Amino acid sequence: MSGNASEIVAAFLRAFMSGDIETARRQVAEDFSFVAPMHAGSGGKQAYFAGAAAKAKCISMFRILHQWQDGGDVSTLYEIDVKGPVGTATLPMHEWHTVREGKIVRTHMIFDTNAKAVHLMREALAHSH
């Protein structure tokens, strides 16, 4: 994948949030790792994409609010609108990605796990099984 780090991250996030999980998966390195609020410790590529398609179905809108880049490090502040069985809500999120050789190798995700949107997504995922 060509482009600068912020373009790579923006393309990855757009693909993931729109449900194009295979495109998103191709944009991360095989040794990809992540840290996220609802995941104990650090995880790998398989854990990151586990249930991704179901999660993406709950996202009705994705907006990048601001992005900063310092070499291969990209900080992205964005919002997602989550639609669940009992309503909708907006969730502000932040991710810090590291890009090397055109692939995302690491992300650190931050969001409020008590936000209404998180509860809506949990409920929607529970009903989809």
Protein described:
The chain is α+β, with helices and mostly antiparallel strands. The protein contains five helices and six strands; from the N terminus they run H-H-E-E-H-H-E-E-E-E-H. A hairpin with a 2-residue loop joins strand 3 and strand 4 (73-84). It is globular and about 40 Å long. The protein starts with a helix and ends with a helix.
Descriptive keywords:
129 residues, alpha+beta, six-stranded mixed beta sheet, 5 helices, 6 strands, 33% helix
Layout of helices and strands, plus pairs?
Layout (H helix, E strand, L loop, with lengths): L4 H14 L2 H6 L1 E8 L6 E3 H5 L2 H6 L1 E12 L2 E12 L2 E14 L2 E8 L5 H12 L2
Parallel strand pairs: 1-6
Antiparallel strand pairs: 1-2, 3-4, 4-5, 5-6
Share of residues in helices: 25-40%
What would the average pLDDT be, to the nearest integer?
91
- Percentage beta strand: 35-45%
Number of helices: 5
**Element-by-element helix/strand order:** HHEEHHEEEEH
Counting DSSP E segments of at least 2 residues, the number of strands comes to 6
The span between the termini is 35 Å
Q: How is the main sheet built?
A: 6 strands, mixed
| CA-based gyration radius | 14 Å
> Which spans have pLDDT < 50 for at least 5 consecutive residues?
none
Strand order across the largest sheet: 2-1-6-5-4-3
Principal-axes geometry comes out as: globular
Helix and strand content put the structural class at alpha+beta
